[in-house]
Amino acid sequence: MADNAHMPLGRADLVTSLERGIKPKERWRIGSEHEKFVFDRKSHAPIPYEGERGIGAILERLQHFAGRRNMKART
């Protein structure tokens, strides 16, 4: 079996990949995404994800205000 891991993608590969994500019009929904920048008030350093004052803890505390939680995979 040939190793295709380093083969460049062609137009057909890209089109096929995008077509897999197409939803029928009746399943369309309106959504929004908001970027928020959180930093420490004293040091102005970025807040880490982990820890009791981290982003994860903030999201946990805010969860009861939101309808549902939608987390993207962390990379």
UniProtKB/TrEMBL annotation:
This is Glutamate--cysteine ligase. It comes from Iodidimonas gelatinilytica.
